[in-house]
């Protein structure tokens, strides 16, 4: 693994862990930590896009399956949709 990719992964882990609400911190950090080593570079970029959505959009997607705010159906969103803590 390149050093650049490892730094990118660390940034994603940090972004998932410090969202602003404790519930989203726990949910997203658990999700990212479970899958991050399985993702290739393209999937990591999709993960970054996913993490850039506001907490409310991600929360509604996870709990109520409301697709809003630009969330695309892709591998990341499907894994997250089926993820359980």
Tell me what you see in this structure:
- With 85 residues, the chain is mostly helical.
- The chain has a single domain (3-82), classed as DNA polymerase, domain 1.
- It contains five helices and no strands.
- It has helices spanning 3-17, 22-35, 41-51, 55-64, 75-82.
- The radius of gyration is 12 Å and the shape is globular.
- The model has no long low-confidence stretch (mean pLDDT 94).
Rg over alpha carbons:
12 Å
- Architecture (CATH level 2) name: Orthogonal Bundle
Fraction of residues in helix: 55-70%
Give the low-pLDDT segments: none
Oligomer: single chain
Class of secondary structure makeup? mainly alpha
Q: Total number of helical segments? A: 5
> What is the overall pLDDT average?
94
For this structure, what is the CATH homologous superfamily? Flavinator of succinate dehydrogenase
> Globular, elongated, flat, extended or rod-shaped: what is the shape?
globular
Number of domains: 1
Number of strands: 0
């Amino acid at each position: 693994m390149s050093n650049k990719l490892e730094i990118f992964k660390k940034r994603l882990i940090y972004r998932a862990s410090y969202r602003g609400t404790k519930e989203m911190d726990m949910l997203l950090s658990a999700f990212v930590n479970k899958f991050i080593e399985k993702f290739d570079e393209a999937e990591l970029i999709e993960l970054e896009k996913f993490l850039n959505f506001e907490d409310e959009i991600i929360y509604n997607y996870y709990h109520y399956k409301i697709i809003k705010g630009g969330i695309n159906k892709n591998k990341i969103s499907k894994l997250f949709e089926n993820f359980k803590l």
